[in-house]
Amino acid sequence: VCHLGDFSMFATTRFLLFLCAIAGTVAERDRAGNVQVRVSPALGSHGRDKVRISIIDSDPTNTYGGFFDYNEQFKHKWTNYSLHSAMKTLQYGENKLKIGSDEVTINLATPGAGVRGIIFGDPCIEHTGFDVPCVSEVEKRLPVILNLVNNQMDFWSILGDNFYDQKGDLTPRFFADLEQTTTAVPLITIPGNHDYWLLGSPDLRSGDDQYANGFMQYYGQDAYAGKFNTTNYLNFSVDPHHKEPAALQNFFQYKVLGNVGFIAYSSVYSWAEQEALFHEACGYMKQQKAEWIWLMGHWSDCSMGCVENPNMDVPSTWSRVKNIPGCDIPTLKNMYGHTHCNKKFNDHQFEIGGSGFLAECKTAGFVYLSTMHDRLKMVLFPYGDHHKYDDLVGCLKKNKANLEECIEHGTVWYNATAADHLPFHLP
Question: What is the DSSP secondary-structure string of 213-237?
Fold first, then answer.
């Protein structure tokens, strides 16, 4: 396996990735040589003290000292990689785990406690197959910010169209610049239309598209497909050679971190196929007494692969989910990407899709979300402009990477308590 840390004194990370590609191996370590991990909060039915931990490399025979019970070469797509994964029980707070010869620290939010996270969508670092270019600052600047604030984060989230990566060669470029302490933060992500079809639509599909098969293995998300089998937790029943999306159970997930519930889904599948899952998820939110609930998806409108009748875009789906017992609370909100802008529409609807794709709003930014001190706070931090980026990084370095001390460099989208919300006027 090619480890960046072995030769980091001699070459840049980008050049080492090139050498690894020639060798047919994968750089699964950060610049310091520390193993990179994926951490996914477990599907709610498994329990809040569970997480799925995964590692990506190119050796399916490596079990990392028996730490993992799933050790397989990627199936169908991105087959130069191997996935190692296991469900683990953690204590709330800090956990130091031995994974092979490496020690990894993972922090798990305490039930009922406030949490903090970073959210962005549609990150683009290189345009492949598009006439529209990407902002190079995403690749250069976003890892720097994430590495600075990782000790302040309880989770991070990518809202689909993850690096517009058909063949699995762009995503590792971004991850190579993330420190282990960043990748060890629990991640929640869902696929967007470009994670199924490079050109963004089933009408433009090709045999080379990943149909979210690479996505579902690379990100190690604990979703509904693993509800009854935590070892073989992925559903490979749909062969992408038939040019069809991977099974929906690989992407529907619900979980609670601290005092926040998350329900994530894909708009490629119908309401009839997912309605029972939404009811199960909302029932879990009620059982766990989630103070805030986020419906997370990718599609801002029902286009480019989104199923219609009824429309499965996030705002339309939210209008149905808010009627389901357990989700029928005023603090149910929704977030999505797809349109390449960062925009608050109202107190319940937030578009977070501006991460470098130079269409629509031509912007790059991330959203900081906090539910500390019994308040929901959301702040948009732009970093595409080098002056704003320099000011934000300077502030973070001055204030021990505490985004709360740097709010002046962002735009406050929301700042209120749960008690401030008026009840929905349900039909």
Answer: HHHHHHS----GGGSS-SSS-----
pLDDT per residue as tens digits for the range 378-427: 999 999 889 999 999 999 999 999 999 999 999 999 999 987 776 654 44
Check the CA dihedral 401-406-412-416 and report its sign: positive
Residue 184 in tokens: 């060890």
pTM: 0.93
Terminal-residue alpha carbon distance, the chain: 58
Cis amide linkage into residue 186, ω under 30° from 0: no
- Report the alpha-carbon distance of residue 155 to residue 161 in Å, rounded: 19
Q: How far apart are CA 53 and CA 46, in angstroms?
A: 14
Helix and strand numbers (H, E) in the chain are 9, 18
Inter-helix orientation angle 386-398/137-149, to 10°: 10
Which of the residues in the chain have pLDDT under 70? 1-27, 129-132, 359, 422-427
CA-angle at 18, arms to 12 and 22, nearest 5°: 145
pLDDT of residue 356: 78
Q: Measured between alpha carbons, how far is 361 from 375 in angstroms, rounded to an integer?
A: 29
Which residues is 264 bridged to in the sheet?
253, 296
Question: What distance in Å separates the CA atoms of residue 392 and residue 119, rounded to the nearest whole number?
Answer: 17
Q: Tell me which residue of 361, 360, 379 sits closest to 370, measured CA to CA.
A: 379
Q: Check residue 96 and give its pLDDT.
A: 98
The answer to whether the beta carbons of residues 73 and 60 sit under 8 Å apart is: yes
How confident is the model over 320-333, as pLDDT tens digits? 999 999 999 999 99
The pLDDT score that the predictor gives to residue 22 is 38
Give me the residues paired with residue 426 across strands: none
Encode 235-248: b = buried (16+ Cβ within 10 Å), e = exposed. bbebebeeeebbbb
- Residue 69: count of CB within 10 angstroms of its CB: 14
